[in-house]
């Protein structure tokens, strides 16, 4: 038999329906009315990590993938995804974006770190646009490399930072905790 599984600690969060902005008082889903919110500069930064065999990353770096330049195709996919977020996430607003940028780094011999930065001048944030950009870029890396490595993992899709708007600045620190 395998090792015993230790249950995760229980996290208790006290929320009411009024804390969940995408639901009305009766619990019905809704798109938040942002019409009265002021227009401010909104920026969000998100990441995704793709782990793979070292040989796969070496092929990517050497330009040896049959489908082409993996990072450039993934960059274009992520930018395109950021512009189509409202088509995929039902309650997201259609937002004009001022910029979308994706950067790729290789922190070790088997990982690609994708960081997406999205900005606009608007009434609501661009967190979902940044997270979708990072996610789709990671999926594109997988798609372009799956012929040589089907065991790649995509993980740590998460918001790293956001600024602008009423809730202020959010910055994830190195321990995975957050501060406002």
Describe this structure in words.
There is one protein chain. A hairpin with a 5-residue loop joins strand 5 and strand 6 (178-179). The N and C termini lie far apart (45 Å). This protein has a six-stranded antiparallel sheet with strand order 2-3-1-4-5-6. It has one domain: 2-Layer Sandwich (Alpha-Beta Plaits), CATH 3.30.70.640. 24% of the residues lie in helices and 28% in strands. The protein has four helices and six strands. It is α+β, with helices and mostly antiparallel strands and 180 residues long. Helix 2 packs antiparallel against helix 4 (127-145). The protein has helices spanning 54-61, 70-82, 85-88, 127-145, and strands at residues 40-51, 99-108, 111-122, 153-163, 170-172, 178-179.
Shape: globular
CATH-derived topology: Alpha-Beta Plaits
Question: How much of the sequence is in beta strands?
Answer: 25-35%
- In N-to-C order, the SSE pattern is EHHHEEHEEE
Task: Compute the separation of the termini in Å.
Answer: 45 Å
What is the helix tally? Answer: 4
- Please tell me how large the radius of gyration is: 19 Å
Low-confidence stretches: none
């Amino acid at each position: 038999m395998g090792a015993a599984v230790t249950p995760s600690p229980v996290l208790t969060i006290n929320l009411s329906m009024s804390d969940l902005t995408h639901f009305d008082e009766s619990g019905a889903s809704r798109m938040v009315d942002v019409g009265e919110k002021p227009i401010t500069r909104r920026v969000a930064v998100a990441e995704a990590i793709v782990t793979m065999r070292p040989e796969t990353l070496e092929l990517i770096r050497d330009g040896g993938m049959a489908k082409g330049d993996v990072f450039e195709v993934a960059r274009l996919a992520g930018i395109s995804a950021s512009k189509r977020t409202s088509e995929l996430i039902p309650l997201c607003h259609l937002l004009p974006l001022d910029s979308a940028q994706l950067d790729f780094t290789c922190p070790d011999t088997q990982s690609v770190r994708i960081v997406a930065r999205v900005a606009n001048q608007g009434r609501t944030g661009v967190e979902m646009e940044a997270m979708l950009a990072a996610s789709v870029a990671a999926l594109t890396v997988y798609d372009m490399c799956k012929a040589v490595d089907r065991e790649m993992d995509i993980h740590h899709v998460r918001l790293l930072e956001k600024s602008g708007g009423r809730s202020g600045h959010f910055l994830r620190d190195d321990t995975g905790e957050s501060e406002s």
